[in-house]
Design brief:
Layout: H1 6-34, H2 62-77, H3 84-94
Length: 102
């Protein structure tokens, strides 16, 4: 439980939730991270897409470039992709991480 009040309490509570979430994610993802994986084995999970111009850094590795191109296309096609900046702003204001006028 967070001590104090106001902004400090909100930060303490947010940090506590973050640590708990990271611990759960670590517990669930660790087995998969410890196994060896064949590069490109999961490419079929998303449809093929052209690489955006800002992925030129990945052009030396076909699998990396293809994976990031598919991921970028999926995000761009998501109906929620354009709402992300607004969602983050509202979250920051709601949890006291930013104040209006910063």
């Amino acid at each position: 439980m967070a001590r104090g009040g106001g902004r400090e309490a909100a930060i303490d509570e947010g940090y506590s939730l973050f640590r708990r979430g990271m611990g759960q994610m670590h517990h669930r993802m660790r087995p998969a991270a410890e196994r060896l994986h064949q590069p490109g084995a999961a490419l079929d999970l998303l449809p093929a897409a052209p690489a955006p111009s800002d992925l030129s850094w990945a052009s030396g590795d076909r699998v990396t470039e293809d994976a990031f191109a598919r991921g970028c296309a999926a995000i761009d096609l998501s109906p929620h992709a354009t709402a992300l900046p607004e969602t983050l702003t509202v979250s920051r204001l709601a949890f006291g991480w930013a104040t209006i006028g910063e």
